[in-house]
């Protein structure tokens, strides 16, 4: 048996959806979030498209020193990007799936909604590790990204 779950959060951003997706849908996101949330992110394989593998090295105090992610899906038309933890981190804690989904949804021509969702499966004998699942770091990433987008908005 496994326990399944999903949590999400969203934020309205006063920039066109295409500008937000230009950040969320590419590896440019790394440059925005590294200073605040990560010590370093290494690109092990790929160019940001499906199959790209990243090694995330966390700042001290995080629940993990590092883990690897694989970009599972990049859908430019629907502005959806799915990333799976592929080695270490949550997988070492009994999770069989830990997927982060970034979405950009057009609201008006000059604004959009950014949404992050975490979907996970954890083995029954590891349910106690659900306490490590938190949307807060991803909300921090959205805030950093929103600030960046607003400061660097192209008209």
From TrEMBL:
Listed GO MF terms: abscisic acid binding; protein phosphatase inhibitor activity; signaling receptor activity
The family this protein is said to belong to: Belongs to the BetVI family.
A GO cellular component entry from the record: cytoplasm
SUPFAM superfamilies recorded: Bet v1-like (SSF55961)
Gene3D superfamilies: 3.30.530.20
Residue ranges of every copy of the Bet v I/Major latex protein domain listed in the record: 4-151
Protein name listed in UniProt: Bet v I/Major latex protein domain-containing protein
Keywords: Alkaloid metabolism
The species this protein was found in: Escallonia rubra
Domain of life where this protein originates: Eukaryota
Any one GO BP annotation for this protein: abscisic acid-activated signaling pathway
Keyword Metal-binding: no
